[in-house]
Amino acid sequence: MNIDQARIEKAVREILIAIGEDPDRDGLLDTPARVARAYAEQFSGLHQQPEDVLTKVFDVDHDEMVLVRDIEVYSTCEHHLVPFHGVAHVGYIPNDKGQVTGLSKLARLVDVYARRPQVQERMTSQIADALMRVLEPRGVIVVIEAEHLCMTMRGVRKPGAKTLTSAVRGDFRTSDKTRAEAMSLILCR
Ligand SMILES: Nc1nc2c(ncn2[C@@H]2O[C@H](COP(=O)(O)OP(=O)(O)OP(=O)(O)O)[C@@H](O)[C@H]2O)c(=O)[nH]1
Ligand SMILES: [Zn+2]
Asked: What InterPro entries does the record point to (predicted)?
């Protein structure tokens, strides 16, 4: 089933009533439909597979690390349905056939998993596992730094607190040196 926008609209109208609002006042009339459209975008990754975006694989003569740093990421915390946002760093070492993907495809892959109800740890591993599966590289590293609005605007209220998660596969897991090289590239500002 794809995203059922009519059902989201009905539910949002119910929420507005439940919080004591009047869903029929001018400013709120179109809100259920707007939220439905926003959710369709925010959760579109649920209906995409990594293979849909990691399609272009070129053979190039490069078997060293490729790293795209500071990929802006917006996701939705599955506990509170509020955003968490930050940056993702995605690196891999191509296999000996030199199979690489377009750089933008790494950012698209991040979005496939970010546009779902998520926890940061799972999103990080899913990106790493998808890259391993589709590109069959010698190794993958994914590091995500994010701020969770559920921790800043509400609840414990700790603005500025950043959560860092990493997932390493293949050579990045087995070789301390390779992992350290990637980390130094990710952290140098
Ligand atoms: N591990 C992990 N926890 C997360 C993530 N996003 C939100 N959380 C946490 O999920 C937890 C949910 O805790 P609960 O006690 O069930 O919910 P709550 O009463 O709203 O918790 P508070 O946020 O502490 O007010 C909170 O500690 C959040 O900080 C995430 O990506 N990964
Ligand atoms: Zn949350």
From this structure: GTP-CH-I_C/QueF, GTP-CH-I_N, GTP_CycHdrlase_I, GTP_CycHdrlase_I_CS, GTP_CycHdrlase_I_dom
If DSSP codes are grouped into helix, strand and coil, which group holds residue 38? helix
State which of 75, 77, 79 you would mutate to test the pocket of ligand 1, scoring each by most atoms of that ligand within 8 A of its C-beta.
Answer: 79
What is the CATH topology of the domain spanning 5-42?
GTP Cyclohydrolase I; Chain A, domain 1 (1.10.286)
Which residues participate in catalysis according to the annotation? Answer: 77-80, 120, 148, 150
User: What's this model's pTM, rounded to 2 decimal places?
Assistant: 0.94
Residue span(s) of the chain under CATH 3.30.1130.10 come to 52-187
Task: State the residue for tokens 């590091």.
Answer: 143
Token readout for 15 is: 């929420």
- Using the predicted structure, report yes or no on whether residue 20 has a pLDDT greater than 70: yes
Q: Whose CA is nearest to atom 31 of ligand 1?
A: 119
Q: What is the ipTM of this complex?
A: 0.88
